[in-house]
Amino acid sequence: MKLDLELEGRRLKDLFLWDKGEPYQTLESFAKILMEEHNLPVAFENEIIQSMKKQISGFRQYKQMEGELVKVV
Q1: Which residues contact 32 (CB under 8 A, 6 or more apart)?
Q2: 3-class DSSP assignment, residue 56
Q3: d(Cα 16, Cα 38) in Å, to the nearest integer?
Q4: Under 8 Å CB-to-CB from 20, ≥6 apart: which residues?
Q5: Taking the CA of residue 41 as centre, how many other CA atoms within 13 Å lie in the half-sphere pointing to its CB?
Q6: How far apart are CA 59 and CA 61, in angstroms?
Q7: In the structure, what pLDDT confidence band is assigned to residue 56 with cuts at 50, 70 and 90?
Q8: pLDDT tens across 15-52, in order?
Q9: CA distance 43 to 34
Q10: pTM recorded for the entire structure
């Protein structure tokens, strides 16, 4: 995931891996943790969630088949 958001004169720029099948933590709870860690205003919560949802929905899985990476459709 790559977040580069600017709101209310504050900026959040972060890069991290997210397991799209994460069973224990929701995007919403993760956004709240990020906001607390970076002391960000509440306005960031929805922007973080929307950015992550957009990136997850645009993710294409790849499988290794016969030594090559093949896009799963």
Answers
A1: 45
A2: helix
A3: 15
A4: 56, 59
A5: 8
A6: 6
A7: confident
A8: 998 887 788 999 999 999 999 999 999 999 999 999 99
A9: 12
A10: 0.75
